[in-house]
Write a structure and sequence with these properties.
Elements: H1 3-16, H2 20-27, H3 31-39, H4 46-56, H5 60-68, E1 75-79, H6 83-96, E2 101-105, H7 108-117, E3 120-126, E4 128-129, E5 132-133, H8 134-144, E6 149-154, H9 160-163, E7 170-173, H10 178-185
Parallel strand pairs: 1-2, 1-3, 3-6, 6-7
Antiparallel strand pairs: 4-5
Helix pairs in contact: 1-5, 2-3, 7-8
Length: 199
């Protein structure tokens, strides 16, 4: 599926009459980076996709959509040791992302095992889960898959400073809301196809 973006990029670059080296120079990346994007071994992040659209004179949504197609049914997880909060949060995430496969975990270790067997596009993590910190769970998930978007959920604003040092892309104060989820989707480091929202 990652080849869809590669094919779109190649087509747009050739249409513009640019070489991979031309793109690399204008984007301040190496030629090998552009080559990886075009051979389907890497996907650029959202910021790079925006810069690509400017260099190619292409609609950013065309490139974002092609990148999103690399995961048609994204796996999304939520990890919270409070079952009531977890069940409520899962319903909200499914409402905002009806085409996603949404799975909840009260045990962080089970979430990490799930991530090892499934490519997780987005993880919502509680920060305080008994003796386990969501900050550590984030690090484990990113070791498994560096392209996992991680959003922290917490009732404590003071955690926000620690959270940014872990590679997460978002931070939400509880309770989780549809509006809050939508806001976080705009900030994802690695965007994916959301599939619209149920009305």
């Amino acid at each position: 599926m990652i080849m869809l973006f590669a094919d779109v990029l190649k087509k747009l670059r050739r249409k513009k009459g640019l070489s991979q080296s031309d793109i690399a120079k204008q984007m301040y990346v190496t030629k090998s980076t552009v080559s990886r994007w075009e051979n389907g071994t890497r996907l650029p992040d959202a910021a790079m996709i925006k810069r690509l659209s400017e260099v190619l004179g292409a609609d950013v949504n065309t490139l974002l959509s092609a990148a999103a197609e690399s995961d048609e049914c994204p796996n999304i997880i939520m990890v919270d040791d409070n079952a009531v909060i977890l069940n409520g949060g899962l319903q909200i995430i499914e409402q905002v992302l009806p085409n996603a496969s949404v799975t909840g975990f009260t045990k962080p270790s089970e979430a990490v095992e799930y991530a090892k067997a499934n490519s997780v596009a987005l993880a919502f993590l509680d920060i305080e889960m008994g003796s386990v910190s969501g900050l550590d769970v984030c690090r484990e998930l990113l070791e498994v898959n560096p392209r996992t978007n991680v959003v922290y959920l917490t009732a404590y604003r003071e955690y926000s400073f620690d959270a940014w040092n872990t590679g997460a892309c978002g931070f939400m104060l509880k309770p989780i809301t549809p509006e809050g989820v939508r806001e976080q989707l705009k900030k994802l480091r690695y965007p994916f196809l959301t599939g619209g929202e149920e009305q």
